[in-house]
Amino acid sequence: MNNFSFSKDGKDVYCLFFLGFLLSFSQILANNHSRQGNPLSQQHKVQGTVTDGTNPLPGVTIVIKNKKNNAVISDYSGQFSLTCSPSDTLVVSYIGFKNAHVPIQGRSVVNIVLSYDTTTLQEVRVNAGYYSVKESERTGNIARITSKDIETQPVTNVLAAMQGRMAGVNIVQQTGIPGGGFDIRIRGQNSIRTDANAPLYIIDGVPYASDPIGSYQTATAFPSVASPLNNINTENIESIEVLKDADATSIYGSKGANGVVLITTKKGKRGKTTFTVNASTGAATATRYIKLMNTQQYLAMRRQAFINDGLTQYGEADYDVNGTWDQNRYTDWQRELIGGTAQISDIQATISGGSDNTQFLVSGNSHRESTVFPGDFLYKKAGSQLSLNHRSVDNKFKLTFSGSYNIQDNNQPSFDFTYDARTLPPNAPALYDAAGQLNWENETWQNPLANLNTKFESKTNDLLANTVISYEIWPDFTIKSSLGYTDLNTKETRIVPSTISNPIYNVSSATSAIYLNNTQRNSWIIEPQINWVKEVGGGKLDALLGSTFQNQSTEKLYLSATGFTSNSLIYNIAAAKTVKIVLNDESLYKYQAFFGRLNYNWQQKYIVNLTARRDGSSRFGPGNQFANFGAAGIAWVFSNESFLKKYSWLSFGKIRSSYGTTGSDQIGDYQFLDTYTVSNAIYAGNTGLQPTRLYNADFGWEINKKLEVALEMGFLHDRIFLTGAWYQNRSSNQLVGIPLPGSTGFTVIQSNLDATVENTGLELTMRTLNFNKGSFNWSTSVNVTFEHNTLLKFPGLEGSSYSQQYRIGQPLNIELLYSFNGVNPQNGVYSFEDINKDGKISFPDDQQIIADLNPKYYGGIQNQLSYKGLSLDFLFQFVKQKNYSYPMGSAGMMSNQQTRMTDSWISAEDPGLYQFYTTGSNGNALTGYNLFSQSTASIVDASYIRLKNIALSYELPLNLKETKCKIMLQGQNLLTFTKYEDGDPEFKSYGFLPPLKIITAGVQLTF
User: Fold this and answer.
1) Among 187-196, 297-306, 511-520, 917-926, whose mean pLDDT is lowest?
2) Fewer CB within 10 Å: N-end or C-end of the chain?
3) Global model pTM greater than 0.70
């Protein structure tokens, strides 16, 4: 049972008490400091804070007008101080904001509020991976969010922070269980293999493998195995860029086919040493429930089912209707089993600062989250980060180091109670008896809480480090090298003790079992580079050459053990009677590449960007290990043309286009080789080997050809900024398993299939500055994506094992269905169209109606409002899609149903929308339901609009020079508007816990 508290053991309360003490102490120091000022000083000293009206702005340049060598920079908390004349004027400048001229007028405290200048936002440099580029000069498609967007969200997964905020990026949460995963598609599904569509993740220049680290034998409560992305601390992220088109991704070659996600962590800023502490606590509950029958409706259904089946007596096992169970009892099992309140607490502390030449940042964080399920389960996550930047006095030598170490400790039931919560009869017995023990109600039911004893535990340690060293040999000619290292270790266990059984059966620990997964992965990468910039022919030429050397090793051990003398020894494998090694695997992946970029920018009007890469991968056989990829991007900034300068309403205009190729080697290691595994069979006392894969050295890289055309326009000094991008991606040479006849001894052989998958789409974004006057600011951002996926070519599809999965000219994510004709008014059974007119409904001939489950469009609408110290930020996410209704089984059996099933057929005179109830003894009704669940009737509108995020913050007017305090209220998934009747509409696999509704309150102290 979950008892809500601020945090376990009250540690966060102590932290906040301590912070309050510091706040008071800082105020005393500030007062004392003010008393020590020298009123007789002949110099006029000015100090103050620079903000955007809400938040402090670090790194702002403040100079005295018409005087040289007097510039100062605001520190991490936006504060500055300088000496000047009482009649001087300060000139304040910062990228993204309008310059301000502030007269001193004899004041000693001058607080400055800068106004956003959306025109200069075009000068912001965007991370493109191996290089950065001004927003106004980029030729590729790069979507971006910053820490300001991320910090408003109470989420722990980096993909959750991106949901609804980027055009062309579709993200779906798979489960609400802490530590669960997300599914991401950047511009659709390129590969026929569903597990080969993940993007490339780069953290501070280091590739971060997103391959699953979990095992299906341990992570049974999750729809997919554990992802390492949960290890990334979202609070340490400064920005996330997503590279989408060929111009942006081709420089990553074989790794960029599905897009690239660049994550940049926070760095130290010059200024005095600053301490920042964030502490928050909150609660989470399930978003939506299915409307299920109450006891009266349920029992009426059950009794009618017996009548329909011609049964005059209830069976001995029909406890719900034969009087064994209380006929007046009602339990809302959804509220009972998945309706708890999860407790959430977070705390993060950061120290940063530095001089002009050296800056540092050190941070640590802790996250704790319980579960909405019954029982005491906890998800814990903690980590630390170190960042160090240094440059020599002459600015020629530069060194950057960033490192992070994160740990996860996840303790969850290995059973998702969502299925039981939706199917248990509403008059099922109480969970506990009068003595507080599990109630087995005289062996008439399987108490669902018995599954609390079968636990899933996971511990993960993740280290990531990167060092970048550069030296400017002569002006505009720089050599650089990036070195990265990652080390990940995870251990998962799932126990199934004998205590999950009714004690009356005396099941001993000899039946107890444990399943274990140990996965270790480490990698290193070295990337030397040369960069040269030169003014040529009235324009600027920027050349980049580099190479990549990468090595990744992975070790996996899956085993199971059964038969223990005691359940207290269940975690001791040596105590098991039987131990089975399911998998003991070690793989090595080697990767080498050479890449280059040539960019020419003529007078900031005409831009050409050429990228190329030659990749080598150990995942292919001799002769196919290397492949070439490249792209060309062009842009015309027509707003810089002289003939358009007179139109003041047009502040920016650019047409850009790109075409190129990327590839994919996401096929796994050693797929081209003859491979063997240890056989379970023993021959002459020896353990043998058995073949598992056929040799095929001919298969090579998947190829993705990308084309894009885009228009960007800004109006009224960019107060209105619009972008439209059309794209076409064609992925060919598909890496799949091609079926073989059984006589070969193998079911498939890994090979290249001459199939082509096309993704086309239109991405629209709009940014408006609705109001910007005085202390009030209001801006809106909108993104919407229309996309379509098509299988263009698949030779021999009709005769392959994919013949009932795909169709030429249709998307990959389709379902082939029976055509539902409604309920037969005469016999009350579901009826379907006999497509081939053979007089019967059969597979596959009659299961040919196509349903597209890809979203038609999706996007988000974000509004940001601020007034003085008060800020409000909210995001609505929307998706237009279809999906399956939740299958509850044939109505009338001993399982609850949706309330809509009350409208079922009784007789020809009393028809209904659904077929008649059955206890399970009517074969026609059971067949009808099975066909119904695979028919057009089971696909419904699952579109939704969700208040994805809302954040309200207020900076307290403390009037303290060294201390700032902000209080915050944040919410996630608070409201969902949908016609979908069967719970939450966001899912990939039904039957799992839906996303959680989260509300947190927190405080941020900076001193």
Assistant:
1) 187-196
2) N
3) yes
